[in-house]
Specification:
Blueprint (H helix, E strand, L loop, with lengths): L1 E14 L12 E7 L2 E5 L10 E10 L5 E8 L7 E9 H5 L5 E6 L12 E10 L4 E11 L12 E7 L2 E4 L10 E9 L12 E8 L7 E9 L1 H5 L3 E6 L16 E13 L6 H12 L8 H8 L5 H15 L2 H14 L13 H32 L26 H24 L7 H17 L8 H20 L13 H18 L17 H18 L8 H6 L7 E10 L12 E9 L2 E5 L8 E4 L3 E7 L1 H4 L4 E6 L8 E6 L3 H15 L8 E2 L4 E2 L2 E2 L13 E2 L5 E2 L8 H14 L1 H8 L5 H9 L15 H26 L8
Antiparallel strand pairs: 1-4, 1-16, 2-3, 2-5, 4-28, 5-6, 7-16, 8-9, 8-15, 9-12, 10-11, 10-13, 13-14, 17-18, 17-23, 18-19, 19-20, 21-22, 22-23, 24-27, 25-26
Helix pairs in contact: 5-6, 5-7, 5-16, 6-7, 6-9, 7-8, 7-10, 8-11, 8-12, 9-10, 10-11, 11-12, 17-19
Pfam family, one: BTK
GO molecular function: GTPase activator activity; zinc ion binding
Keywords: GTPase activation, Metal-binding, Repeat, Zinc, Zinc-finger
Length: 814
């Protein structure tokens, strides 16, 4: 059994941000931190006080996180970026919102005394005899303290208050991982005369500064009364800030619209999910029996908010079973058969539409990148000023088009049409020439959809319906959204600037018109798009031929196996250029110690060479990886660095490879990918050194022995969710069960009333076991689904009881 915590967050947009630049605007972006560790960074939106990001992330992490924070920054090309404000959400607050958080939240100021992090290791015990009572506080070490100095480190010391006495440890210079190993002793005589609130020991960590005041690094407090009962209090304790003294700013710093959902799952052993999986498999393999099939139940039980996640999990479950295309065909057939007007086919966000979208993203994302990336990159690089709407043409911008003087509105329109035709022609050629490269699973889905629609809407009057159904998914829900927002489909690392964004919007509109088979051309308010109508009409004819060829494939293709090849162990999970530090470069100038190399990661090896085409590769077996972690910036005076620790034998220590990424997002993506493939390795390390071993000591904790135990905890379970994640059927089934459990009463009330009421007593009497119906009619899908839900509920309750019995009660004082 395992625990799985998933934290989903979406940074939608900001509004009313303050201007930080002399131009009267800002260039905002967001940094996301979990317990003060950066896990994501949005792209920068240039010159905008009401930015839209729309970026979403799913983070898998241990249960013990405390705070999720969003920092809004203003990017500056010269000097340091400015902090605009932040939002901090505690785990307790997020968990108290079962439907998640989806709202506007005002930004607050960033108070340095609130920006604390790290832990301190203490041993506390009271020594008593007939004459006196003393408190011994053994201060051993601290880890992951906040950097307060320009060097990226601090000079920490500990100050302790108890019974009107103050004692301090020595100062440890230039480290975030200090080791004091000092015992401070306090006389407790007369402490009972103090107010109960003052009968505490307060342990504060400070950064010593030669000039100016010392910087606060955090504190932890213990009431003394429990210490009289316990022999000792020992362990790592989280450092906390002073009480929050922030005043309500009334939205003066602007606000963010965020969506946050926390799900904590207990993943049972696989055997417990087999009945649920089997029921789902039977629902797509057997012919429909009446109106109330399991798929009907699933769609009616899930709310509009949960339909997206349900679709994701169902697609992944059926991918794991090799039945994804069969599942989609079943959903699509139901959707087609219950649609009366062909013009409304797949226009709603039904389970069928959502499932098709998710399948295309999982299976077709590499295909999408291959088709669109070259032309999208060209649009970004050329930055042409393009505008067709006469109400939005800005003639001042046209000066960059021509150096011969002012340009008329007509000339701007003519040049815009020329640019758009060129881009659109290349996009159309790329898409319509990609039929053979389209994943076979997608092609078979479209072939079956083509057949279902043709059967439901026959005749010459409906000859275009089968094309519109396919193009509605392929163009309107796949290609057009990727053209409109390339950043959200990983086609670009940054959002488009306003000029490029306008070009992409016009191109996306044209592609949508092609996907609609040109049916709306000449109608509506956007008649200024008419110069592109001839090219769109010409492309519609080519589109029909393309779709005919796309679905022209053998019906006996093993679509399940085709889909699963995405997750074949030998497939390349991630690749790209990174900067590797030369192992022998110890005393060289830092900029000469990093060499650009091309890396490949599969589930078997982590390889690199001088270029993608270089024949000679160096490789590290994945099973030898012991840890994959960040590196402190002060170790090499370089940002965005990670280390890969490998071990060849049982011997302590190992080899460390240092790699630099170009930005924090790339760093997090590589950390996540490497951790996922090595998560089940046998010799994973519990601790590591965030610094480097240089000049005969570790730069992080200043210890001299190279093989000494690491000074910080590893983050093996912290990974980012991604469309290319390997399948995890148990985790997918558990999330699906959670959604079904929340709607169990709806299932019981709706499907066990009326005609099924007579069977309820019999069903309960036999413990919801299908075998009790031997000789009678088989159980309805609703009864079987309810039985599966309740069996899983009982299994979870049994594991919860076992955990409570096995976990001893510890008294804790903080």
């Amino acid at each position: 059994m395992a625990r799985n915590t998933a934290l989903y967050f979406r940074l939608v947009e900001g509004k009313n941000l303050p201007a930080k630049d002399v131009s009267g605007t800002s260039d905002p972006y967001c940094i996301v931190k979990v317990d003060n560790e950066v896990v994501a960074r949005t792209a920068t939106v240039w010159r905008d006080l009401n930015p839209f990001w729309g970026e979403e992330f799913t983070l898998h992490l241990p249960l013990g996180f405390h705070t999720l924070s969003f920092y809004v920054m203003d990017e500056d090309t010269i000097g340091h970026d400015d902090v605009i404000g932040k939002i901090s959400l505690s785990k307790e607050y997020i968990a108290s919102q079962p439907r998640g958080i989806d709202s506007w939240i005002n930004l607050s100021r960033v108070n340095p005394d609130e920006e604390v992090q790290g832990e301190i290791y203490l041993e506390l015990h009271i020594m008593q005899d007939q004459h006196k009572s003393n408190l011994h506080c053994h201060v051993l070490e601290a880890r992951d303290l906040a950097p307060r100095d320009i060097s990226g480190t601090s000079d920490p010391f500990v100050r302790i208050f108890c019974n009107n006495q103050t004692l301090e440890t020595s100062v440890i210079k230039r480290t975030r991982f200090p080791r004091w190993n000092e015992v401070l002793e306090f006389d407790l005589r007369g402490i009972e005369e103090l107010d109960p609130g003052d009968q505490v020991i307060s342990i504060e960590v400070w950064d010593w500064d030669m000039v100016g005041k010392n910087d606060f690094l955090g504190r932890v407090c213990f009431p003394l009364e429990p210490l009289h009962r316990n022999p000792a209090v020992t362990g790592w304790f989280r450092l906390l800030p002073f009480g929050n003294s922030e005043e309500e700013n009334g939205g003066k710093l602007g606000s963010l619209r965020v969506r946050v959902i926390l799900s904590e799952e207990r993943i049972l052993p696989s055997v417990y999910y087999q009945n649920l999986i089997q029921l789902l498999v039977e629902s797509v393999q057997s012919p429909d029996q009446g109106d109330s099939t399991v798929l009907d139940l699933l769609e009616e039980m899930c709310s509009a908010e949960s339909r997206q996640e349900m679709a994701v999990k169902l697609v992944k479950i059926f991918l794991g079973q090799g039945l994804a295309v069969t599942f989609l065909d079943k959903l699509n057939m139901r959707e087609v058969n219950r649609t009366g007007d062909p013009n409304t086919l797949f226009r709603s966000n039904s389970l069928a539409s959502k499932s098709m979208e998710q399948y295309m993203k999982i299976v077709g994302m590499p295909f999408l990148h291959e088709v669109l990336r070259p032309i999208i990159s060209r649009v970004f690089e050329e930055k042409k000023y393009v505008e067709l709407d006469p109400c939005k043409i800005d003639q001042n911008r046209s000066r960059r088009i021509s150096f011969k003087g002012s340009v008329s509105e007509q000339q701007i329109r003519e040049s815009s049409v020329e640019f758009l035709r060129g881009y659109l022609s290349d996009i159309i050629d790329a898409i319509l020439g990609s039929g053979e490269r389209c994943p076979p699973g997608m092609r078979l889905c479209f072939k079956q959809l083509h057949k279902r629609v043709e059967e439901r809407f026959p005749g010459p009057a409906n000859q275009d319906v089968k094309y519109a159904a396919i193009s509605g998914f392929l163009f309107l829900r796949f290609f057009a959204p990727a053209i409109l927002t390339p950043k959200l489909f990983h086609l670009r690392e940054q959002h488009a600037d306003p000029r490029t964004a306008r070009t992409l919007l016009l191109l996306a509109k044209a592609v949508q018109s092609i996907g609609n088979l040109g049916q709306q051309l000449g109608h509506g308010k956007e008649q200024w798009m008419s110069p592109l109508h001839p090219l769109i009409q010409q492309s519609v004819g080519r589109l029909r031929d393309y779709l005919d060829k796309l679905v022209d494939m053998e019906s006996d293709v093993e679509c399940g196996h085709t889909s699963r090849t995405l997750f074949h162990p030998s497939v390349t999970i991630k690749e790209g250029f990174l900067h590797k530090r030369k192992a022998e470069a110890v005393n060289l100038v830092t900029r000469f110690t990093f060499k650009k190399r091309y890396f490949w990661l599969s589930s078997q090896t982590f390889s690199y060479s001088k270029s993608p085409d270089w024949q000679v590769r160096s490789s590290i077996p994945v099973h030898r990886i012991c840890a994959v972690e960040r590196v402190d910036e002060n170790a090499f005076q370089q940002p965005n660095m990670m280390q890969i620790i490998t071990q060849d034998s049982e011997a302590q220590g190992g080899h460390v490879m240092y790699i630099q990424c170009k930005n924090v997002n790339e760093l997090n993506q590589w950390l996540s990918a490497l951790r996922k493939v090595s998560l089940c390795n046998q010799r994973l390390l519990p601790t590591y050194h965030p610094g480097a071993y240089r000049n005969a000591h570790w730069t992080c904790c200043l210890q001299n022995e190279r093989t000494v135990r690491g000074c910080s905890r590893t983050h093996l379970a912290v990974t980012l969710g991604d469309w290319s994640d390997p399948l995890d059927p148990d985790a997918e089934a558990q999330v699906l069960y959670r959604h079904l459990l929340s709607a169990k009463d709806i299932l019981r009330n709706k499907y066990l009333e009326g005609t099924e009421c007579a069977a309820v007593g019999k069903l309960e009497a036999i413990g919801h076991n299908d075998k009790g119906f031997e000789g009678s009619t088989p159980c309805s899908p609703s009864k079987r689904l309810l039985s599966v839900i309740e069996d899983l509920q009982k299994a979870h309750q049994a594991f919860e009881r076992r955990e409570r019995e096995e976990t001893p009660n510890h008294s804790q004082c903080t």
